[in-house]
Amino acid sequence: MKDFHDVSACPPAALPKDPTDIEAMLTVLVEAERCAVRGYTHICNLTAGKDHRTYDLSQAILNEEIEHESWFSEFLGEGPSGHFLRRGETSPFVGKFLR
Hints:
Keywords: Iron, Iron storage
Largest sheet: none
Distance between the termini: 24 Å
Helix content: 55-70%
CATH architecture: Up-down Bundle
Radius of gyration: 15 Å
Mean pLDDT: 86
CATH topology: Ferritin
CATH superfamily: Ferritin, core subunit, four-helix bundle
Protein name: Ferritin/DPS domain-containing protein
GO molecular function: ferric iron binding; ferroxidase activity; heme binding
InterPro entries: Ferritin-like (IPR012347), Ferritin-like_SF (IPR009078), Ferritin_DPS_dom (IPR008331)
Shape: globular
């Protein structure tokens, strides 16, 4: 996993020293999600109209990352709720790739 992460576009998430500092923890998490959103947006832009399968998969993952970012952002009070609800089933975005 470390080798895979080392070639990713995002820096390692440095968790706060105090694990009870929830705001600091959420800030780290929201920044990690924002980096992932930028990365998958870039992949979508590179593959749009050229590599349909990679684009489709990247777009599905991008939607997941946007959803995660909105959760953490909402917890930090940065904006209104995105009203994303999950009922425990497989992701509506990447589920089709798991069949």
